[in-house]
């Protein structure tokens, strides 16, 4: 059930940096990072019937076995067999790695390890896409952009003319804003501590901005005052627990829905007064934008092909594979959104 893929383009996502820094989790070493990518199937292993050499694919850090209760449910994308596992550095079939150096194993990362010219991936973690789609553009759909866009269109589901708040204006947050723009939201309020992000966010539909540091009162109160009682939908893309609570408490009673996307610190606790829920506010969580990788990602690629979704504006830099450290430097400085790494240069 394994596929060898020639990676043509990969991009750097903050998750790669987080695990590379080895903060707050058990480090697995040595391992090959990378999970947001596009490539071509080079060969397939025993039992693989859905893919053939030459197919264009997007590797995904989570999977879709199509057999488990989650995969059979229309409401879930959290496959029992292939959902993200950041600690597992080996293949599911035999518990061994497919990379080695001098006879010693090099471990995998979230089942993808795309910072390599070739990688081996379980068939359930590969979305077969339209070969006419430019891999150097659609590769960003294999993680962050789909996560943010899907959080808005699949989970928050803002109505046309509604008001949406987006917490965190990095690549995922801007993808969430893009989802609100495509949905026809009339006001999209960006919330971020970095005012340098505000100008860029206008390209993604943001109409107003709030910097919590510029206000003495909690940002949820600021937003409630701006919107006559609260926003219709909010999407939280930072993982900061204070932002998560603010994102929930800023939605309007009676119909407001808040969606949590960001991954919090392992010891974080979400605290709010139960009346906030009893007053008919809804709190939801999402994982990979509620997209099933194999079933849904090809359709998101088609949205791009049909010009319903813009990807070029997310791609701010491009480097050769030899210059991969430049991509890390850019992300650590907070410069740009997505940096494409060209594997063949």
From TrEMBL:
Gene3D superfamilies: Medium-chain alcohol dehydrogenases, catalytic domain, NAD(P)-binding Rossmann-like Domain. It catalyses: a primary alcohol + NAD(+) = an aldehyde + NADH + H(+); a secondary alcohol + NAD(+) = a ketone + NADH + H(+). GO terms for molecular function: alcohol dehydrogenase (NAD+) activity; S-(hydroxymethyl)glutathione dehydrogenase [NAD(P)+] activity; zinc ion binding. Residues 2-129 form the Alcohol dehydrogenase-like N-terminal domain. InterPro entries: ADH-like_C, ADH-like_N, ADH_Zn_CS, GroES-like_sf, NAD(P)-bd_dom_sf. Its EC number is 1.1.1.1. This is Alcohol dehydrogenase 1. PROSITE patterns: ADH_ZINC. Its main location: cytoplasm. Keywords: Cytoplasm, Metal-binding, NAD, Oxidoreductase, Zinc. It is found in: Cytoplasm. Homodimer.
């Amino acid at each position: 059930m394994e596929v060898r893929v020639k990676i043509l383009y990969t991009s750097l996502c903050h998750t790669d940096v987080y695990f590379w820094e080895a903060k707050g989790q058990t480090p697995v070493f040595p391992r090959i990072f990378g999970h947001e990518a596009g490539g071509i199937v080079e060969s397939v292993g025993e039992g693989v019937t859905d893919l053939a050499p030459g197919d264009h694919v997007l590797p995904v850090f989570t999977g879709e076995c199509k057999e488990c209760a989650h995969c059979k449910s229309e409401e879930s994308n959290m496959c029992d067999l292939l959902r993200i596992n950041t600690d597992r550095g080996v293949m599911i079939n035999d518990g061994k790695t497919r990379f080695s150096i001098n006879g010693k194993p090099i471990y995998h990362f979230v089942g993808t390890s795309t910072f390599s010219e070739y990688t081996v991936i379980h068939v359930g973690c590969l979305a077969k896409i339209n070969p006419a789609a430019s891999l150097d553009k659609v590769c960003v759909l294999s993680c962050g952009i789909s996560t943010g866009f899907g959080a808005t269109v699949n989970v928050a589901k803002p109505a046309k003319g509604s008001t949406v708040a987006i917490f965190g204006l990095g690549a995922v947050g801007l993808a969430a804003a893009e989802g609100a723009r495509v949905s026809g939201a009339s006001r999209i309020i960006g919330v971020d501590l970095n005012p340098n992000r505000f100008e860029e966010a206008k390209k993604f539909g943001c109409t107003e901005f709030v910097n919590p540091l510029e206000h003495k009162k909690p940002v949820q109160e600021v937003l409630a005052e701006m919107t006559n009682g609260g926003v219709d939908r909010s999407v939280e893309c930072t993982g900061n627990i204070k932002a998560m609570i603010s994102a929930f408490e800023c939605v309007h009673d009676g119909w407001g829905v808040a969606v949590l996307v960001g991954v919090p610190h392992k010891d974080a606790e979400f605290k709010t007064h139960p009346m906030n829920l009893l007053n008919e506010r809804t709190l939801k969580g999402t994982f990979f934008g509620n997209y099933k990788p194999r079933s849904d990602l090809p359709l998101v690629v088609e949205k791009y092909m049909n010009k319903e979704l813009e990807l070029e504006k997310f791609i701010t830099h491009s480097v050769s594979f030899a210059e991969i450290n430049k991509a890390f430097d850019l992300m650590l400085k907070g410069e740009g959104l997505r940096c494409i790494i060209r594997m063949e240069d």
